[in-house]
Amino acid sequence: MLFDLPDHDTLYRALIERDDRFDGQAYVGVTSTGIFCRLTCPARKPRPENCRFFASVGACIEAGFRACKRCHPLAPMANADPAIATLLNALEERPEFRWRETDIEAMGFDLSTVRRSFKRQFGMTFLDMARHRRLRDGFEALTEGSKVIDAQLDAGFSSPSAFRAAFARLIGRAPGSLSTTGVLLADWIKTPLGDMIAISSATHLHLLEFIDRKALKSEIATLEKAVKGRLGLGSHAPTDQIRAELEAFFAGQSATFTAPLALTGTPFARAVWAELQRIPPGVTKSYSQIAQQIGRPSATRAVAHANGANQLALVIPCHRVIGADGSLTGYGGGLWRKQRLLELERQYRGLDQGP
Fold first, then answer.
1. Which residue has the higher pLDDT, 139 or 274?
2. Which residue among the candidates 63, 198, 318, 344 is catalytic per the annotation?
3. Mean pLDDT, to the nearest integer, of 91-96?
4. Where on the phi/psi map is residue 242: left (φ > 0), alpha (ψ -120 to 50), or beta?
5. C-alpha count within 13 angstroms, C-beta hemisphere, residue 112
């Protein structure tokens, strides 16, 4: 059973104080470095906005973080099982290698035993762990203009079908079907709260979502259908603009987003989204308040649905909408992320954020 994590501020204090009470029960992922650590790590402490806390090593790895070489968060698992130690060392030495079951067997290990050990310790298999380390490299190579075969090799996928399958699980499209000259271009944006996918045309931003949002594949499929399959990889001007605006936002410099937006929802949804954009940073409103303000006081449930249909995270600030009782309620990017965004925006409260 996983440890029920305390709030972000409590865990950050524990990190600063190197409190060993949380050792083995909580870990910190540092978004500025891509590294995850024990809370007792002696390394220089990151800024609070660059910290994500997890209840397990597996969750850190699944989120794309690599183990710290100073505090060695994988050491307890490795010490508990020599097979885990050997395989983790092999993965560290050859992160680009595409591991197969036969490779594990060739090292003298029983496949079922290794599978159970890794699932028990990390919540994923050894092969899953190796794939997580390779996929982002392949995506970034593609967005930089590499050919599919080059990106595949850069990411260590010796099998084209394996690379296509892993890529398709991420955005719902095989990489070979994407060029760098599409009407819409998809690009990867790193933020302190996790990586995002931005999709833009030459004139407008159509999508901005965290990559772990469950609705991402269906949202991309809808956009692709609208442009008759002309979806590619790369960066149009609106993506470059939103990347710079996000950097300023997370740096505490500005909560103003002026990138031109493509809003394709119903008139009701667009009215809700327009009202969301009027909520100042550092302020929250309830679904019922939004319904009142758009002149539809009985449409609270429909407002919640429109809020959830927003595919321009942060820019249309659906994270500023909470339950009537003050609860965070649902958020496609995860409630932990919603809480962090609201905490971050306190610094902007009362400031003039007009263009």
1. 274
2. 318
3. 76
4. alpha
5. 0
Our answer to whether residue 37 is catalytic in this structure is yes
Q: Which value, to the nearest 10 degrees, does the dihedral of the CA atoms of residues 41, 43, 49, 55 take?
A: -20
Of the candidates 35, 37, 255, 279, the residue annotated as catalytic is: 37
How many degrees, rounded to 5, is the angle at CA 291 between CA 340 and CA 345? 20
Q: What pTM does this model have?
A: 0.59
Q: What is the CATH number of domain 8-67?
A: 3.40.10.10
What is the per-residue pLDDT across 294-337, written as a single tens digit (0 to 9) for each?
Answer: 999 999 999 999 999 999 999 999 999 998 888 888 788 888 88
**Annotation: binding site:** 37, 41, 68, 71
